[in-house]
Amino acid sequence: MAWYAYCIGEKQAFPELARHRKPIPLESVLGVSGNQVFLYPASDLAIVVSEHNPAETLNQKAGVDHARVIADCFKHSTVLPFRFGTVFQDDESLRKSIRSNQRQFQGNLERLHGKTEMHLKIHVDACCKEQMDAMGKFEKHLSAKHSISEGVGKEYLSSLRESATRQRERQTRARAVSFQMHRMFNPLDEEVSCRMTESGRMLLDIAHLIDRKCVERYHNKYLTTSAMMRECQMQLSGPWPPYHFVHRLTRGVHVPSQVPAVSVPTSEPRTQQAVREMEPVLAAV
């Protein structure tokens, strides 16, 4: 029988496992395809799984169900989420994978115990979409002419230099905002990424690791910060399970299943976008 895996939790957080060595149902929790979710004991760990048919296709709803089960478990325990779509072919492959990485999993649970992730999205510098559109039209015009006179060439190079200057300014602004967020929120740890949106704005994705008992204080700081920085559009979600920080801690861990486990994917296909839709659910944890 194949097992679909959601996350690894602390066995002590589920008292019902104390008297059992075999998987037991996690009451009132259904997972992917509406299957019953089980707690699978493994030494001091509790592996959260459900029965799975490997021939079954995992769709967008499965991604939402995956995130919802992790959120439910996060109410009771520190968790190490598995990558969406992780399937173990049988009991032996599950036990072998956990046993070979058990020390690292337990160490990661200890490091993340009592902690949660808050997620900030910040749009920086509502910049120059008109200029970018004008630049695109200008380049199309040059392509149509098939030749560049000396004057047009200078104008083209000047436009490139202006575009590069604006890009550096946006990057400098993004770094400054990131530093300012770190100083204001003072997280235990952070993960920051930055990308350009279609509208020409810089989007900062900031994940902050904080103590769970400090969530209310973090919300208050967010309200103060967003009022002070009105030139930036800010969005907050959380508390989340510490997805970004599990990814950092488990680099190099090998789990021989259908999909590498206990990490967060770097890309977001449609199923991963479905997981992102769970932000309101996770925020209620």
Give the termini distance in whole angstroms: 32 Å
Strand content: 25-35%
Q: What level of helicity do the residues show?
A: 40-55%
Gross morphology is: elongated
Radius of gyration: 23 Å
List low-confidence stretches: 126-135, 251-285
Overall pLDDT metric: 77
Main pleated-sheet profile? 6 strands, antiparallel
Helices and strands, in N-to-C order?
A: EEEEHEEHEHHEEHEHHH
Task: Tell me the total number of β-strands.
Answer: 10
What is the domain total for the residues? 2
Provide the structure class. Answer: alpha+beta
Counting H and I runs of at least 4 residues, what is the number of helices? Answer: 8
List the topology elements.
Layout: E1 2-10, E2 24-30, E3 36-42, E4 45-52, H1 60-74, E5 79-81, E6 87-88, H2 91-112, E7 115-124, H3 129-145, H4 150-185, E8 189-196, E9 202-211, H5 215-228, E10 233-240, H6 243-249, H7 270-276, H8 279-283
Antiparallel strand pairs: 1-4, 1-5, 1-6, 2-3, 3-4, 7-9, 7-10, 8-9
